Amino acid sequence: MPGQKYANNELVMGRWPGSSLYYEVEVVSFDDTTERYTVKYKDGTELELKESDIKYITSFRSKKRRSGSSSPSRRRSRSRSRSPGRSSKNTQRRSNSQGSEVKDIKKDDILEIKLTPLLRENSVGRHNGDHDIIQKNDGFLTFTQQNFEQEFEENETLVQYSLRPRKEESKMQVMDSKEEKQIEKVPVKTMELELEFGGKIGAFFMIFLLPAAVFYLLWICEQKDASILILPLALPAFESLWDIRVFGVFLLWFFAQALFYLLPIGKVVDGVPLSNGKNLKYRINGFYAFVLTATSVGVSLYYKMGLHYVYDNFLQFAVSATVFSVLLSIYLYIRSHKVSHEELSHCGNSGNFIYDFFMGRELNPRIGTFDLKYFCELRPGLIGWVIINLVMLLAEMKVQNRDMPSLSMILVNSFQLLYVVDALWNEEAILTTMDIVHDGFGFMLAFGDLVWVPFVYSLQAFYLVNHPTEISWFAASAVIALNICGYAIFRGANSQKNAFRRNPNDPKFAHFKTIPTATGKSLLITGWWGLVRHPNYLGDIIMALAWSLPCGFNHILPYFYVIYFTCLLIHREARDERQCKKKYGLAWQKYCQRVRFRIFPYIY
Ligand code: NDP
To answer: Which of 99, 148, 500, 550 would give a disulfide with 408, using CB separation of 3.0 to 4.6 Å?
Structure first.
């Protein structure tokens, strides 16, 4: 296996993702599992590059000399160019891989590219924040940021360009292998991947603790006294938890959803461009799958094919789903060793079996066009959750001998149905989430999607079956208002960001203030995203509280969801923050200065 070719701290030329242009970058570290380099551009942006996207500076210099194409006019146009990776100084210190030879190299000799500015009238109008100045510079539109000037004297200009290579630029990419060989390779110690979730030990415990937590919660929920402090004295026999027929029903459910996913209905859209330059296609038909499922359930109710079977065997269903998610994770782990490095997720490739099994090695495992992660994220688990809620509603009527479900049960069912239908209706938005873009598909997501979501998120409905709770219409109105408020923030924030990412020049964003970043994307600093850094999490947590309140205050169990979910989103926010810091460098720091609170205004 090839090792690290470019040394840490070495200045090299790195290809700007998605283009054929090379900028001067500094090697920060090398991950020998994914064989990717973390490189730093001049404006502080850090990106991961493959070895093939990095070249020695010397090869560019030598190539240019040989090409003999540096006419004075060309030189003039070059000297004006700005790039995210380019400093304004004429000279730059370079150290070779041994760190002994340090030379001054003229910048103009390095970059043989012409940068064509991207003039965005709408952007001009809204980059009018306190620290942002817009200036025209020799016909080139630049966004100058005073704070950046103070912090990084070399990088006073942050520019958004449409990058177009010169004719000879393509020639430059043909590397002179002889020159490369002359530069001695030195073995360099590789940087450890930053491990999440408590690292290897954390992952090891989570693999056992998460299923144990599900069974403990479900078991407690069935008891008359649903106190979580009660330790189970008489656990059900292990054999009684496994029923092959239940497993068969689970498989039927899973494959029926897979069939709905494969139906050629619904539009096909592009996912976020991957680091390998590929763009995966996704079929958007989750809402149709939901309608088909609802119709099938309606028909089975009409013909009195008792859904009560699910309630009677609820723990067995949870066991079946867990077994299936473990088998799926094993399959995912094995197949991930057969795919190329380009297909791997960065975060699930530490080289440690337990950690990688938990985090997931492959980013977008597919069988043909069937995307396993995308399918599991929204279909079997999420739709399963509302079906389980319906099962609990019917079970409540049966167990409590009611003609009508309780108001609490109706509220819980309606709120969560709205949440699921919303997710399916806006299915396309999932393509930009961390789960799809960043995380590998392993035990964490497989178990989360197939077991945790349907069986733990339905705890409130399950609780109400054996713990009758009556609430007044007044209390119900207050809870409905709370849920509407949470939903408005959640939907408003998510829609605003998705619409902005899709088309930042949309006239509806004309009055929004934004911070440009070196990647070409901007960050909203007004609207919902100017209130806190994760307004969508705030709305989600408010809704989670509204789902628990109808269960009264006798036990903490129905509040498990909101407590756990708050912890999850605080942790998720920190993960996203780390990634955005890497992605956007100083622009992210500036965003954090402008928008001080993460999730809860004036609190956190
Ligand atoms: P988010 O939708 O919060 O997206 C975070 C990304 O948004 C960042 O990485 C960045 O990506 C972009 N971004 C951040 N700040 C700005 C800004 N100011 N302007 C423009 N873009 C910005 O990610 P999640 O995947 O965590 O959440 C998606 C939804 O799913 C949320 O509503 C969340 O509550 C919900 N969720 C629900 C769960 C559940 O179990 N019910 C679990 C987890 C999440 P970039 O710049 O690359 O676009």
So the answer is: 550
